[in-house]
């Protein structure tokens, strides 16, 4: 399954700060359809993604009825991403039996 969307980078200042991009509604609905097939502990969904020229792997985090993409510091540094920047995020969700 492949998705692509754009969103603003925001920060969550918990015990360890994280940066995220929220997955918009149409893509959340698509993810919900496959989540039970691919998710592991706490509803996390493993994905491979790209921002700019930087490839990364991570897991989507369930949050407030949807999902968010953690944007690692290494990706933010490589692409010069700051808070509130709008980025385009193509993602590939690994489906069992397709890799």
TrEMBL record:
<dbReference type="InterPro" id="IPR015018">
    <property type="entry name" value="DUF1905"/>
</dbReference>
<protein>
    <submittedName>
        <fullName>DUF1905 domain-containing protein</fullName>
    </submittedName>
</protein>
<dbReference type="InterPro" id="IPR037079">
    <property type="entry name" value="AF2212/PG0164-like_sf"/>
</dbReference>
<dbReference type="Pfam" id="PF08922">
    <property type="entry name" value="DUF1905"/>
</dbReference>
């Amino acid at each position: 399954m492949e998705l692509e969307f754009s969103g603003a980078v925001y920060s969550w200042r918990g015990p360890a700060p994280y940066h995220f991009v929220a997955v918009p509604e149409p893509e959340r609905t698509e993810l919900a359809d496959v989540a039970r097939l691919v998710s592991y502990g706490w509803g996390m969904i493993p994905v491979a993604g790209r921002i700019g020229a930087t490839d990364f792997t991570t897991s989507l985090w369930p949050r407030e009825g949807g999902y968010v993409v953690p944007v690692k510091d290494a990706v933010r540094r490589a692409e010069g991403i700051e808070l509130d920047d709008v980025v385009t995020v193509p993602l590939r969700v690994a489906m069992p039996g397709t890799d």
